[in-house]
Amino acid sequence: MVPEGHTIHRLSRDLRSDFGTHPVKASSPQGRFQNGSTQINGKTLSKSEAWGKHLFLSFDDELILHVHLGLIGKFRPHSIESSTTDTVRLRLEGKQAWHLTGPQKCALISIDEFVNVTDGLGPDPLRRGTRWNHFAENVALRRTPIAVSLLDQSVIAGIGNVYRAEFLFILGIHPERPSCELTDTEIRGLWELARAQLRQGVRLNRIVTVSREDSGSVPGRVNSDEALYVYKRESQPCRRCRAAIRITELGGRKCWWCDRCQPR
DNA sequence: TCTTTATGGTGAG
DNA sequence: TCACCCTAAAGAT
Question: In strand B, which positions have an atom below 7 A from any protein CB?
């Protein structure tokens, strides 16, 4: 429902399949993207790709639309007949009407700007051709807590506050362990887990990290209050050892962990 | 009907 | 480290 890397990759895929090769109708009901939407209107989506939490839509191979949802942005499908509100920055019409609200970024950019953005990103486990040793090198260079490194988009692209806490729990890694002190096995584990979890996130279009064994049901059918191990579960019992889940602030964001399952 | 919070990121001091 | 941007749902009153 909300944006970490899986959301953006799923969005990229859904928009591509919705628009196909037909011209798209574009407008900016809110008016803040009037100019841009006018340029896009009537053009065809020629490419749709995600890099971490960034979405890039190319139109007629000449315009590049850069969208970043930030913390509160949404890009959701509605029926073609649906009306818009004055918070809709961009409305794109294909088979459905896609409403973009509250984005951190919605702008037409040049190739240079595109390269600038993507150059600043670490490897995205959902993109082809990315190698885990890039991630390993980035982690090994940092003394900051591993929980902080995981949120740094130049270390690994697409991880957000939910996934970072969940990954560290699943692998039994204390969030405050200095990044450079992680073993190769742990770093490799983080990368493989990220890849598997983000893929599942794309497939389900939601984050479900709890395993079948721990939840008792298939990931696609897990209740929302049983989908995660630690995120937003402070003082509730750990799903594995029943110890109280703890919370702290790391990298300016809240981080949850289990003292017993994730020893220092 | 308020106030708070949020899966993010930037730019100022 | 902090203020700030943008919106909507959840929680408090």
Answer: 6-9
Pick from A43, A36, A29: which is nearest to A82 by CA? A29
Please, what is the angle between helix A184-204 and helix A5-19, to 10°? 40
Residues of A serving a catalytic function are 3-4, 53, 253
Proximity of residue A2 CB to strand C below 7 A: no
The answer to whether the Cα torsion of A12, A15, A17, A20 is positive or negative is negative
Domains, chain A, ranges and CATH? 5-119 (3.20.190.10), 132-257 (1.10.8.50)
Q: pLDDT tens digit string along A222-246?
A: 888 889 999 999 999 999 999 999 9
Distance, CA of A180 to CA of A113 (rounded, Å) = 32
Nucleotides of strand C lying closer than 7 angstroms to a protein CB:
1-2, 5-8
A31 CB contact with strand C at below 7 Å:
no
Q: Tell me: pLDDT of A99 over 60.
A: yes
> What would the pLDDT profile of A128-173 be if each residue is shown by its tens digit?
989 899 999 999 999 999 999 999 999 999 999 999 999 999 999 9
Q: Got the DSSP string for A61-116?
A: TTEEEEEE-TTT-EEEEE-TT----TTEEEEEESSSEEEEES-SEEEEE-HHHHHH
Nucleotide nearest A85, from its CA to each C1' = C7
Q: Where are the beta strands (DSSP E) in chain A?
A: 25-27, 45-51, 54-59, 63-68, 74-78, 88-93, 97-101, 105-109, 246-250, 253-257
Indicate the length of chain A as a whole number.
264
Report the nucleotide nearest the CA of residue A74, measured to C1'. Answer: C7
Separation of A232 CA and C10 C1' (Å): 14
